[in-house]
# Entry
Amino acid sequence: MKCVFIVFNQTNTARVEYMLDQLEIKGFTFFEEVQGRGTYGGEPRRGTHTWPEMNSVVMTVVDDDLVEELLLTIKKLDNRNKEIGVRAFVWNIEQTV
# Structure
């Protein structure tokens, strides 16, 4: 199993939820109002007057065979609007309870 950590501008919330539904990913954890800045020229998301936008995060654990399709779908979403950005990070899950 893999954990996929998806960081996105809050304007993409409905699109990310739709993506999960279309891929039949039922379980996830949603974090709202996440602050940060992208590695490659991303503007800060801080919720301030200077940097008013915020990010959100979805973390989901999926079977290995679903990861590639999920990442391709995330890449398509990112390509729709590079300005607001979507990023995903994947790591192994050793055990669950």
In short: Residues 74 and 86 are 7 Å apart (CA to CA). The chain has a mean pLDDT of 93. The longest helix spans residues 64-80. The chain has two helices and four strands.
